[in-house]
Design brief:
By secondary structure, this protein is mainly alpha-helical. The protein has 13 helices and no strands.
Length: 329
């Protein structure tokens, strides 16, 4: 049997993050790509039963004190579509869903808890299934580079987020629309550079020091403008030499943990008797849950050469939309 790791045709970043996933991906046949791993099937079944039970408990336990909960089909569909793109490309869920929910007439106090609680579940679920689909390799004992990168992104982004939120509230000198447009312009530039790099075939060289800067900037962007974490982290990893499929998985897992912190904060407020609106949680979580199962499978099936164009291209679209909305064009 030939050594798969020594094949010159395998497009893996030398010594970089996502190397194992790249080797597995390059050696799969079409039939192997389409087949669902047995371990993934078991996990999906268990999670499906757990989801049904937890949704029932949430509606009964939280709905009464929070003014009621309800499943809205239109919100479920929109959440499913946007979480599918988010779990497949690492971006777009909060950025796209929040404005649409505002257009639907929902208040921020109902939108924010729903997004954070849902993203905490879907992000962690998506990261787990990306691992089971071999889009990324997470190893805890001993922790491999992928796990260490998740921890690095969480820690640095959290520090930058806290500092940026503090400065924004203390200074309050930047118009919100300007900040949103600024982050969007940067996402457009990063996406365009990613497309150009793929088009001209620039060799992938792993540059770990870049990841520190991108992690700090992602946290600062989220603290200043409320968004931008997914696009900045995903594109930042890719531009640092991380394998595309693994970059998406790492972003999902990282954002899931960060959202969990925010979601637990709202649950603490609720426990202390503060008014928290959980009206949208069942709808957003339902759509996001099933999307977080489907998207890792799509990432597994579609060749990485497609994602090399699709991820930065989608980032450009999101960035342009953000510029238009941020500047009120």
């Amino acid at each position: 049997m030939p050594d798969a790791g020594s094949s010159p045709d395998i497009p893996t970043p030398p010594g970089g993050i996502g190397e194992e996933a790249a080797v597995l991906d390059a050696n799969r046949t079409t039939v192997q790509r389409l087949s669902l791993p047995r371990s993934a099937r078991r996990i999906v079944l268990v999670l499906g039963l757990g989801y049904a039970l937890s949704l029932l408990v949430f509606v009964v336990g939280f709905g009464g004190r929070a003014g009621g909960t309800v499943v809205v089909p239109s919100v479920v569909i929109v959440a499913f579509v946007l979480e599918s793109t988010d779990s497949a490309t690492g971006m777009g869920f909060g950025t796209g869903l929040a404005p649409l929910l505002f257009v639907f007439g929902y208040e921020p106090l109902a939108v924010v808890p729903a997004l954070l609680l849902s993203e905490s579940v879907t992000g962690l679920l998506s990261g787990l299934l990306h691992h089971e689909m071999n889009n990324v390799t997470f190893r805890l004992r001993p922790p491999n580079r992928e796990i260490r990168l998740v921890v690095l992104l969480i820690l640095l982004s959290t520090v930058a987020l806290v500092i940026s939120v503090t400065l924004v509230h203390a200074l309050a000198i930047l118009p919100q629309g300007f900040v949103e447009a600024y982050v969007s312009v940067l996402v457009v530039l990063m996406g365009a550079f990613g497309l150009l790099r793929t088009r001209i075939g620039t060799p992938e060289v792993f540059r770990p020091r870049r990841l520190v800067g991108f992690a700090l900037f992602a946290g600062a962007s989220k603290g200043i403008g409320g968004g931008g974490f997914g696009p900045v982290v995903t594109l930042g990893q890719i531009l640092s030499g991380v394998y595309e499929k693994s970059a998406v998985a790492i972003t999902s897992a990282s954002e899931g943990v960060l959202s969990l912190v925010g979601g637990l904060t709202f649950l603490v407020f609720w426990y202390l008797g503060e008014p928290v609106d959980f009206l949208l949680v069942p709808s957003v979580l339902t759509g996001g849950f099933f999307a977080a199962i489907l998207a890792p499978y799509l990432v597994r099936v579609v060749p990485n050469s497609v994602w090399q164009y699709l991820i930065p291209g989608y980032a450009v679209v999101i960035g342009v939309a953000g510029v238009v909305l941020g500047l009120g064009v």
